[in-house]
Amino acid sequence: MNLSACQSCGHLLHFENARCSNCSHWVGFHPGDLKMVTLESKNEIWRTMAAPVRHVRFCKNVEHDACNWLVDDGDPELFCVACRHNKVIPDLSSHRNFQRWRLLEIAKRRLFYTLLRFGLPPTRRPADPEGLVFDFLSDPNEGMSLAPTVLTGHEDGLITINIAEADDAEREARRTAMGEPYRTLLGHFRHEVGHYYWNELVRDAGGLDAFREFFGDERRDYGESLQVYYADGPPADWPDRFVSAYATSHPWEDWAETFAHYLHMVDTLETVSAFGIGVNTSPPGAQPLKVAIDFDIYNEPDISKFIAAWLPLTFALNSITRSMGQPDLYPFALEPLIVGKLAFVHQRIAIATGRPTGDATDISLFKAIVAALRKTAGDPPGT
Q1: Are strands 35-42 and 158-162 parallel, antiparallel or unpaired?
Q2: pLDDT tens-digit series, residues 178-231
Q3: Alpha-carbon distance 250 to 109, whole Å?
Q4: Integer distance in angstroms from the first to the last C-alpha of the chain?
Q5: What phi and psi values does residue 322 have, to the nearest 5 degrees?
Q6: C-beta of residue 121 within 8 angstroms of C-beta of residue 85
Q7: Please, is 116 exposed, middle or buried when counting C-beta atoms within 10 Å of its C-beta (0-12, 13-18, 19+)?
């Protein structure tokens, strides 16, 4: 995420702000500019202070304090480019539903920021029958011993989210029960939209043969594969080949987990770069640890630069969270095969958006990089 400042007083703004906490000016995110802008009102018309001739209005969901994104005044849509993909929202007369939905919308807008930043806006229905839509549903059996009736998942462009995932205690219980080291709302969105983009970036874009080299044959029975995974668990050597245990269940899930992981990395590295955060130290008896994000996150063809920054950075961040008594911020390990899969995702996005592409066909390209970084930083905490 990049940084924005109030154009009235210079105070730094959070991505979720609707008002500047310093001068109380209204602020909002303009998806066309991909940044927060400060607003002023004249004759009941909102104008951006940076470009007074631009007239804008807030997304209709501002009525629920659930969105701070802007719509150009000439746009006939009532909702912003993120909210207009909502198909079903929960019954907002329930305070619990309302609070959970607002948290879901915050996570969803962070997802859309990255997609728009890449130039990957999802298609819409009815123009595309498999266009991206969201159903945010409440589970009538929540809290009972019955199996949940609302399952988070994706099917033909429809992403269903059980809004109970927005409850911290409920999500933690599910994370523990599923044996997952990481489970967040934003992670759900990035994973499920990964399924949508498999259609866009692989199936419909001539990428199936290369996909199968990295992830396996997606034509194997999906339902049977999941049954085997839940009955037997992942193979013992899964950390050498998959970014998560769940990724072992089927090539589609491997892609979705890897796609989500790639978006985690991109957003984190952009934020690190925006704050000017780096690592520059020489631990006693070890080689120096140095990280500086001196490349364009969204246009760099060489993913090895991502990895060269990522491993020392996450080693440092995990050490910081441990100092606070918190779990590792990054409880994953990136082995060469996993880096190759990330490189494939990186390449497919570059091809789809007309960016420079790197070579994502030779796993051996990444072995020396990962080995050298492991020698420098040691295995990341949590591995």
Answers
A1: unpaired
A2: 667 677 889 999 999 999 999 999 999 999 998 998 899 999 999 999 999 999
A3: 28
A4: 27
A5: -65, -35
A6: no
A7: middle
